Amino acid sequence: MIEIAANAITTASIVLAARNSVHTWWLGVIGSILFGVTFYRAQLYADVALQVFFIATSLMGWWHWLRGRNGTAPKVSRAALPQLLIGVTTAAAATLGYGILLDRFTDAYAPFVDSAVLAFSVVAQILLMQRRVETWPVWLIVNSIAVPLFASRGLHLTAALYVAYWCNAWIGWYRWRHLAMRAGSA
After folding, report:
1. Are 16 and 24 in contact (CB under 8 A)?
2. Are the C-beta atoms of 48 and 33 separated by less than 8 Å?
3. Which of 13, 16, 89, 92 could be stapled to 28 by a disulfide with Cβ–Cβ 3.0 to 4.6 Å?
4. Burial class (CB within 10 angstroms; exposed 0-12, middle 13-18, buried 19+) of 89
5. What radius of gyration, in Å, describes the C-alpha atoms of the chain?
6. pTM for the full model?
7. Among 32, 60, 75, 35, which residue's Cα sits nearest to residue 126?
8. Average pLDDT by consecutive 10-residue portion of the chain (186 residues)?
């Protein structure tokens, strides 16, 4: 039952993110709490840690999208190449490091794959908070890794919805590229 509620609320949050709606954030907090419980029960500990991160960044993203810097909410724009390279390199290193920790010190299932979902989700979430177009291709990578991981743990509803999130990421990428062009930052 918790997995169903987590997926329903998170789906609403993800659809609203692609639509560039600030309501994505408070729904994200609720969905992350429910997913934290779901993933703990499935021994996906990196994903539990990720939900804690999502709760904190959802609160920050909510504030940032409402107020931004100097009281002005940020517009959708492109990330700089150095920012992307740092993010991807850091995520790859974190995947390896956290995967080793989970492998050696826990009973985690698929510690390296689980860690990749965590690390690249962090990068995608930071880009989302900043309203960067590149959040969407990173979410495509995350969802491509997460679908088989969740399916292998019997979280079939979650896996199916991550396929839908994968499709939503394509829609978000398309929409946000157009928003960035209109804002003059394409």
Report:
1. yes
2. no
3. 13
4. exposed
5. 16
6. 0.87
7. 60
8. 93 93 95 95 88 94 85 87 96 96 92 94 94 96 96 92 95 96 76
Tokens standing for 111? 């510690």
For the chain, give the secondary structure using H, E and C. CHHHHHHHHHHHHHHHHHCCCCCHHHHHHHHHHHHHHHHHHCCCHHHHHHHHHHHHHHHHHHHHHHHCECCECCCCECCCHHHHHHHHHHHHHHHHHHHHHHHHHCCCCCHHHHHHHHHHHHHHHHHHHCCECCHHHHHHHHHHHHHHHHHHCCCHHHHHHHHHHHHHHHHHHHHHHHHHHHHCCC
* Per-residue model confidence (pLDDT) at position 186: 56
d(CA 49, CA 12): 22
CA angle 146, 152, 156 (to 5 degrees): 75
Helix (H, G, I), strand (E, B) or coil at 69: strand
